[in-house]
Amino acid sequence: MLNRRYLRIKVMQALYAFFQSEGKDLAKAELELFRNIDKIYDLYILQLLILPEVRDIAENVSAEAKKKRLPTENDLNPNRKFLDNKIINLLQQNEYILKFADAHKLSWQNEYDIVKKIFTNIKNSEEYAAYIASADFSFKAQQDFVIEIYETFIADYEILIHHFEEKNIHWGDDIYLVHHLVAKTIAGLDENAEINFSLMSLYKDAEEDKKFIAELFRKTILHDEENSKIISEKTSNWDMERLAFMDLLLMRMAVAEVLYFPSIPVKVTLNEYIELAKMYSTPKSKTFINGVLDKLVADFKTSNQIQKTGRGLLE
């Protein structure tokens, strides 16, 4: 589920691309912004699909072992605890996952090598050996194992992350959010879970969140000239051309939010953009942006430009 900070990040990325582009088509850029956010759900579904794909490879390996010229007892009668894992079965049979994947053409069909490497890493691990050897066949034990192998062998697998980055320039960042969604989806299942269990939603409140995204994107652009001017007045001792572009962008977004979002407390806005500066700009950006925004907010209060609705929203 996307929180407000992550929504700001997606808007920030879209604004960065918009202001660096030559055409500057606002409607087209906004459409692309929402398309990129929707793509996060594609990544979520892909990650839910990967465990059944790993299990299918395990099934194929088991079937091939039986065809050996001199198969061992273990080849002929393999331990099926991983192959028959109930959680992976639920993921493989869920109609919502299957229909979404089919509609959006999502699959691991052409990525056999990646999935095979993941399976090999899992099979050769201590976690796999302990799971297979355990006499605990409970739903909870199977669930804990699936979460463990997902977090250990899939979530931070560098080859897989590189694969996603090649597919979509934003997925390198989005994957960490998706890991949380996948783990929460699996952890939310219980013994009574139906095959068509509900998946996680991308938005907490789709209508409100989409409205926030669109307005922050538009207002930052539509008020850019005036907001950039007042920011430049507070940075007159700095060479504007040498300031980090990301610092200026974050301040333009923050000013738009302070002035044109009456339901968001000023402190929340300031804290959020200082945090984004830590994440996406230079080591000194936090202090610089904090100082400039404090001065701007003081001026806005003096000139009564900040109009917030509700108690406590101004401070």
* Major sheet details: none
Q: Which whole number gives the mean pLDDT?
A: 90
Question: How many H/I helical runs?
Answer: 15
Helix share of residues?
Answer: 55-70%
Structural class, please? mainly alpha
Number of extended strands? 0
Quaternary arrangement of the chains shown?
single chain
Q: How many discrete domains?
A: 2
**Range of strand content:** under 5%
Overall shape: elongated
Compressed to H and E, one letter per element, the order equals HHHHHHHHHHHHHHH
What's the N-to-C terminus distance? 28 Å
Low-pLDDT sequence parts: none
Q: What radius of gyration results from the CA coordinates? A: 25 Å
Q: Could you give a quick summary of the protein structure above?
A:
The chain is an all-alpha fold and 315 residues long. It has helices at residues 4-20, 26-65, 73-76, 86-93, 95-103, 112-123, 126-133, 139-154, 158-167, 171-187, 206-222, 224-234, 245-260, 266-280, 285-302. The relative contact order is 0.12.
Protein architecture, described:
This protein is mainly α and 315 residues long. It folds into two domains: 4-187, no CATH class; 223-302, NusB-like (N-utilizing Substance Protein B Homolog, Chain A), CATH 1.10.940.10. It has 15 helices and no strands. The longest helix has 40 residues, at 26-65. It is elongated, with a radius of gyration of 25 Å. The two termini are 28 Å apart.
Describe the SSE topology:
Layout: H1 4-20, H2 26-65, H3 73-76, H4 86-93, H5 95-103, H6 112-123, H7 126-133, H8 139-154, H9 158-167, H10 171-187, H11 206-222, H12 224-234, H13 245-260, H14 266-280, H15 285-302
Helix pairs in contact: 1-2, 1-11, 2-4, 2-6, 2-10, 8-10, 11-13, 12-13, 13-14, 13-15, 14-15
